[in-house]
Amino acid sequence: MEKGKTTQDGAMRSVKTMEAARLASTYQKEWFAGIHDRVNSGEDFAYINADVPMEILRAMDIPFVVNQWWAAICSAKQMSSKYFALLKEANYRDDLCSYCATAFAGSLDPDKSDAPWNGLPKPTMAITRLTCDSQGKIFELFANRYGAEFYPMENTVPLSVPEKWWEKAEDRWEELYSEERLDAAVDELKRLIAFLEIKTGRMFDENKLIEVMNLVNEQERYYKMARNLIADRCPAPAVITDTINAVMQAQWQRGTRWAADHAKFFYNEIEQRVKDDYKAVPNEKIRLMWIGRGLWFNLGFYQYFEEKYGAAFVWSMYLAMGADAYIRNGVEKDPLRALAARFIGMEDFLHMPPWNAEWFISEAQHNKIDGVVYLVPENCMQAVEGSYFITKMMEDAGIPVLQLKADPVDPRKWNQDSMTRVVSEFIETRINRQEV
Predict the structure, then answer these.
(1) Where does residue 268 rank: exposed (0-12), middle (13-18), buried (19+ CB within 10 A)?
(2) What is the four-CA torsion angle of 306, 312, 315, 318, rounded to 10 degrees?
(3) Rounded to two decimals, what is the model's pTM?
(4) Cys staple from 125: which of 21, 46, 165, 184, with CB 3.0 to 4.6 Å?
(5) Parallel, antiparallel, or unpaired for β 401-404 and 46-48?
(6) What is the pLDDT of residue 356?
(7) What separation, in Å, do the N-terminal and C-terminal C-alpha atoms of the chain show?
(8) What is the DSSP letter of 66?
(9) Which residues cross the membrane (predicted)?
(10) What is the mean pLDDT of each successive set of 10 residues along the chain, which is 436 residues long?
(11) Neighbour count for residue 116 (Cβ, 10 Å)
(12) CA atoms of 351 and 190, how far apart (whole Å)
């Protein structure tokens, strides 16, 4: 796809230069076809939210698809406008959280012949954590549409904020979280295992979970090394148009041999670029940070600013979270507790100031960031509720921030010209830069 080619909505197609991104997309299509085969043969199939501990399902060999990944695929295939029009026709609010509601909206489509990759297989389970009021209800509606069993998991919140959580997460999670919170999370995992055993007839094997957890650790260590290479190299050897695609898709396969091997391939490709003195944006003058979800229907948006200003988007949460939030060492001692320590903090790390804001500032400094574009979808409580505090803390640290009010998967409210103008004005007026 040539850079600059646009869709009917005026969005720009991205150009991917890394082989790791292409391989990830190819694998996902093959894997998804395999999911269809397994479901068609009668296996149970789970539709889960991103913060559900998928490692349990992986260890039990239960096929599943992650809500956020499917929403991104539907958006990238330009299906969101159709799906959300159907939701509106069915008299649902037009400002539902699109990231969580895409699959439910798609279930209303009477003609699924144009659904991405032959559409979502019929699930028998819908599993989410009760991390916001809307999410649980949307999953329940989704489950009812398919006749699936709805399984909600409780969520807990921290009572204190540790300094530099990213320095404690790998080995010091008993210090990072309270004992009571970890205990509650382990009990919640045991209940999930019991539910899955009864529902599917498959038995949980702790040794298999240890294998899965160690494969995740292997994968994320390669992401940590890749993150550091990109942060330390100016101009950067890779930008987020490639890294988001390569990493996000593989993260939903974490705990598999393929995902760990792909992460190694991804790291090696970036390492080779460094050796070859490859510059992803040869005229790089500005380094930008993208906070929030990917703009899935318009990933080419980032590349416009590369050409015009030499502004390279070098940071996104997808690679950085892999580097700092997932690794848990010593899982053999107590794999369920290690897994609990992995998943209970995800909402804190991403959506809870000052946990997230302090990490964003640290990452901005590490990556020599000149400015931040912060995607704030106003229909998502989790993504918007801390935006004031995040922006203020970063601005107080001397890092200019632009809040871009847009939706990651729904293009109906997107205006390419106005959004391009807003980011251009931010670069021109608020970022100290070399003459361009």
Answers:
(1) middle
(2) 30
(3) 0.93
(4) 46
(5) unpaired
(6) 93
(7) 27
(8) E
(9) none
(10) 44 74 94 97 97 97 96 91 92 86 93 91 96 89 97 92 93 94 97 98 98 98 98 96 92 97 98 97 96 88 92 96 96 97 91 93 97 87 76 96 90 89 95 56
(11) 17
(12) 26
CB 44 within 8 A of CB 132: no
Instruction: Name residue, tokens 């010209």.
Output: 417
Residue 152 phi, psi (nearest 5): -90, 145
Radius of gyration, CA atoms only, the chain:
21
Beta bridge partners of 289: 315, 372
Output the pLDDT for position 436: 43
pLDDT at res. 1:
31
Compute CA distances 197 → 154, 191, 209, 246, whole Å.
19, 10, 15, 33
Q: How many CA atoms lie within 13 A of 70 on its CB side?
A: 25
Give the pLDDT score at 209: 98
DSSP 128-155: EE-SSHHHHHHHHHHHHHHTPEEEEE--
Nearest-angstrom CA–CA distance, 243 and 228: 13
Six token digits for residue 218: 């292997």
- Look at residue 99 in the predicted model and tell me its pLDDT: 84
User: Looking at residue 375, what DSSP letter applies?
Assistant: E
Note the pLDDT of residue 433.
52
Q: Which two tokens stand for residue 379?
A: 């229909």
| Interatomic CA distance for residues 325 and 311, integer angstroms | 27
Amino acid found at 222: Y
Token couple for 377: 């979808």
Could you tell me the strand order of the sheet in which 311-315 lies? 311-315, 286-291, 371-375, 401-404
Tokens 């041999």 belong to 257
In this predicted structure, what is the pLDDT of residue 3? 45
